[in-house]
Design a protein that fits this description.
single chain, 277 residues, mainly alpha
């Protein structure tokens, strides 16, 4: 009787499977035999980065994570919303006060307490936005106060004092060199320029606060918006006070005394406050 194995088809016969090599699992070293080899084996460190890990990097604390800063922003926005809720056309009137120079008051002008409330809320927002811009700009160069809430409050206080000082100085100059009506228009133009500047600085200041990586770009944008507002206000003052060629001398003195020198002083004061931290 023939053997059953002799009838197997050749194409069904194959090689035996090879054992799987555990590549990358076992290290190709001999087992330690002596005490020296044992200590060398125990002190072995992995050479791969994934096995040894990475050195931790300290995550910087953002000013937006400060509860005091967030509370201050929320209160400022609520005050702004409360001040503007009954004065929808106040922004338009601010723009007119900034640009127009009239010989006499408009008979249809109707100023209410709602407009005063809206103006105060905008001025407060302007001071806070400028304080944030100063803090973010100094932080970008490593000169700001480490406590974000205290720093922004101090810089905003400096901006508020600067606003009050400017208002008093413009009132004195208008009282001496202009009629009461033109002096009032000049002061309205100043407050309107500050209110509109505060609205313009809201967006870059908030972006700077929540994304310090773009602080320098936002600082350039904020300075440009501030300078633009000042130029428009200065042009209005030129239209009010310029009468003849000799008055140009007084206007140049005004630019140096009330526009350039106080601005330099406020920058120096901000840096001095930062150095006291």
């Amino acid at each position: 009787m023939p053997d059953s194995l002799t009838n197997i088809s050749p194409d069904t016969v194959g090689n035996a499977p090879q054992p799987v090599e555990p590549w990358g699992v076992c290290r190709d070293v001999e087992a330690p035999l002596t005490a020296d080899e044992m200590s060398q084996y125990a002190s072995w460190q992995p050479s791969d980065t994934y096995a040894s890990g990475l050195i931790g990097v300290i995550r910087p604390v953002l000013p937006s994570t400060d509860s005091g800063v967030v509370a201050m922003l929320v209160m400022a926005f609520l005050l702004l919303a409360f001040g503007l809720r009954h004065s929808a056309s106040f922004i338009k009137s601010c723009w007119q006060d900034l640009l127009s120079v009239r010989k006499r008051d408009n008979a249809f002008d109707d100023h209410t307490t709602n407009e005063a409330r809206a103006l105060i809320s905008l001025i407060v927002m302007t001071c806070i936005s400028e304080g944030i811009m100063i803090y973010g700009g100094l932080s970008a160069y490593g000169m700001a106060i480490r406590d974000a809430f205290r720093g922004i409050m101090l810089y905003s206080g400096l901006c508020a004092a600067y606003f009050v000082a400017q208002l008093a100085a413009y009132g004195a100059v208008g009282y001496i060199f202009a009629t009461p009506h033109l002096s009032g228009q000049w002061l309205k133009g100043f407050t309107a320029s500050q209110a509109l500047t505060g609205l313009a600085l809201m967006a870059p200041s908030v972006v700077m606060l929540f994304n310090p990586d773009v602080a320098r770009q936002m600082l350039v944008l904020g300075i440009s918006l501030y300078v633009l507002g000042r130029i428009i206000f200065i042009c209005k003052g030129f239209r009010i006070f310029y009468h003849k060629l000799f008055s140009l001398v007084y206007f140049i003195l005004y630019l140096c005394t009330l526009e350039l020198i106080p601005l330099i002083l406020i920058v120096k004061a901000s840096m001095l406050v930062s150095s006291l931290d």
